[in-house]
């Protein structure tokens, strides 16, 4: 009983330590709890100074950090801005995410906006002039959205709606691709199963003592081609083959399974 109470007390203590602390997730999947500070080195490259709950200090280069979740609920991730890798403050998340970032050499933090796709490609959010053209080309995978930009249905003040619509579009496209892949896998599995049953039928036919084996094999090959190609098997063909192999129970069983 005492050991259980001690364990509960330890868990409560660790929970309290976690509250009000920042969380840093590294690219290796480690989760660090403590406090952080983003700084720049002499080459103007950002890095992370980190102190854990025990007071241990360490530094992390930007490419070693996957994500920062601070105690205020803000999220920061490394992003590519032209030739610079910098920490971006994530504002919206999805296939297309919106980040605020600090322009190189600027003393004002997170004062510029950038759109970042899931593949890492990005576009600095253009000004009013050139916004529709620039964003439309960047998001050209979604023709309906691009048309709305071309037709001036959307403008710069509709950035949130643009991001949401693009993410819905990509979600539909992704689900379609997954469905097609699943169908292909299922078709491959079906063809493999059919192939195994075809082989079993041919071996059983070769070993059987039924009459007119050659005629039965020709009918079966015709039936097999139709099954592989997803075509309907004419009743005259299936009935004729059933009649031809009716004297052999093994052949009849395999054929009935194929025709289910």
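Q: What amino acid sequence fits the structure above?
A:
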């Amino acid at each position: 009983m005492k050991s259980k109470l001690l364990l509960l007390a330890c868990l409560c203590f660790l929970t309290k330590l976690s509250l009000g602390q920042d969380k840093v997730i590294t690219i290796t999947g480690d989760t660090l709890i403590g406090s952080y500070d983003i700084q720049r080195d002499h080459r103007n490259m950002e890095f992370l100074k980190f102190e854990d709950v025990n007071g241990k200090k360490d530094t992390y280069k930007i490419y070693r950090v996957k994500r920062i979740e601070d105690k205020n609920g803000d999220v920061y991730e490394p992003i590519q801005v032209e030739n610079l890798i910098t920490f971006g403050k994530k504002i919206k998340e999805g296939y297309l995410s919106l980040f605020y970032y600090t322009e190189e050499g600027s003393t004002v933090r997170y004062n510029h906006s950038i759109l970042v796709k899931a593949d890492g490609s990005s576009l600095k959010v253009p000004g009013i002039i050139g916004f529709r053209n620039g964003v439309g080309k960047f998001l050209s995978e979604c023709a309906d959205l691009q048309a709305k930009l071309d037709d001036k249905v959307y403008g710069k003040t509709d950035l949130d709606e643009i991001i949401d619509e693009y993410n819905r579009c990509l979600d539909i496209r992704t689900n379609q691709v997954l469905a097609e892949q699943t169908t292909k896998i299922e078709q491959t599995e079906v063809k493999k199963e059919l192939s195994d049953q075809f082989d079993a039928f041919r071996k059983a036919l070769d070993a059987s003592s039924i009459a007119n084996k050659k005629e039965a094999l020709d009918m079966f090959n015709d039936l097999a081609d139709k099954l592989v190609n997803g075509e309907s098997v004419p009743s005259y063909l299936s009935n004729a083959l059933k009649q031809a192999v009716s004297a052999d129970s093994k052949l009849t069983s395999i054929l009935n399974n194929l025709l289910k």
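Q: And what stands out in the fold?
A: DSSP finds seven helices and ten strands in the chain.
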